[in-house]
Amino acid sequence: MSGPGMKLRPSTDREGLRRMTAEDIRDTFVIGDLFQPGQVSMTYVEVDRAVVGSAAPLAAPLPLPTDRRLASSYFCERRELGVINIGGPGWVELDGARHELDNLDSLYVGRGVQAVTFASASVDAPAKFYFVSYPAHAAHPSTVVRKAEARAIQAGDQKTANRRVIRQSIRPGLVETCQLVMGFTELEPGNVWNTMPPHTHGRRSEIYMYFDAAPARVMHIMGEPTNPRTVFMDDGEAVFSPSWSMHSGVGTAAYRFVWSMGGENLDFDDMDHLTLADLR
Predict the structure, then answer these.
(1) In 10 A of CB 98, how many CB atoms?
(2) What is the tens place of the pLDDT at every residue in 135-189?
(3) Is residue 175 included in any domain, yes or no?
(4) With a threshold of 0.85, does the pTM exceed it?
(5) Does a structural domain hold residue 32?
(6) What is the number of other CB atoms lying within 10 angstroms of the CB of residue 16?
(7) How far is residue 251's CA from residue 34's CA, in Å, rounded to a whole number?
(8) Looking at residue 242, what is its pLDDT?
């Protein structure tokens, strides 16, 4: 079954973030109702008109519904969709064609796919599908990218506790998209920092979803470098950052996170790097 309908997260500006309490930040930027068993959950984020959601099927497959906020007859009528399975084996059916997804496999769904259905291969180890969607101006082929097929980049240093593997699965050269890029990062044991020093990219917003963290927690850092704000994240929660906001995090143990971006540019090197001295 579906959840209670698509929720809305309005956009905010730099000044608005400066005035927020810790509770305000969580209520505005953190999406904490993902992966409800037997449900599809969706949140419409006004920043770049993203939709962040999950499907956690059990015995019965779950169709992806549209919503009145999209003003469309089906979800992907004017949208593209990126999916990563962070649970057990499952499959996603696109207009009758089944695509098997194991743990940490990715799927790009192109504009114009009318019927999207999520299913688990077993209720004993159900699939957990995380998805992010952006508006699309053209139709591109739907494509599966296995974990082993993603572009893997070794980054960081054990000395600074941020050694990690960045796996770019939905990206130029592997999958043609309109504005979506997506993948996940895996911190190696004994490492806790991600994306430090941080950066911004004024032409794209970014969304993080932390997973495989429990019982650890992650302190996510966002906002302007001269006025950083923090929020503690639990396993399976997502947080979005406007294009003007940095995004970084430190955990109480190693973890993984899915990152996704949408905006004007698909170039991964299109970012404004910060230094530790820039942070206040």
Answers:
(1) 10
(2) 999 999 999 999 999 999 999 999 999 999 999 999 999 999 999 999 999 999 9
(3) yes
(4) yes
(5) yes
(6) 12
(7) 20
(8) 83
CATH code: domain of residue 196: 2.60.120.10
Residue type, 165: V
Query: How many separate domains does the chain show?
Result: 1
- The tens digit of pLDDT for each residue in 84-106 reads 999 999 999 999 999 999 999 99
Of 11-25, 55-69, 252-266, the poorest mean pLDDT is in 11-25
Segment 180-193, tens digit of pLDDT: 999 999 999 999 99
> Does residue 136 or residue 202 have the better pLDDT?
136
3-state secondary structure the chain: CECCCCEEECCCCHHHHHCCCHHHHHHHHEECCCCCCCCEEEEEECHHHEEEEEECCCCCCEECCCCHHHCCCCHHHCEEEEEEECCCCEEEEECCEEEEECCCCEEEECCCCCCEEEEECCCCCCCCEEEEEEECCCCCCCEEECHHHCEEEEECCHHHCCCEEEEEEECCCCCCCCCCEEEEEEECCCCCEECCCCEECCCEEEEEEEECCCCCCEEEEEEECCEEEEEEECCCEEEEECCCCEEEEEECCCCEEEEEEEECCCCCCCCEECCHHHCC
Q: Which domain holds residue 155?
A: 7-278
Is 1 within a domain?
A: no
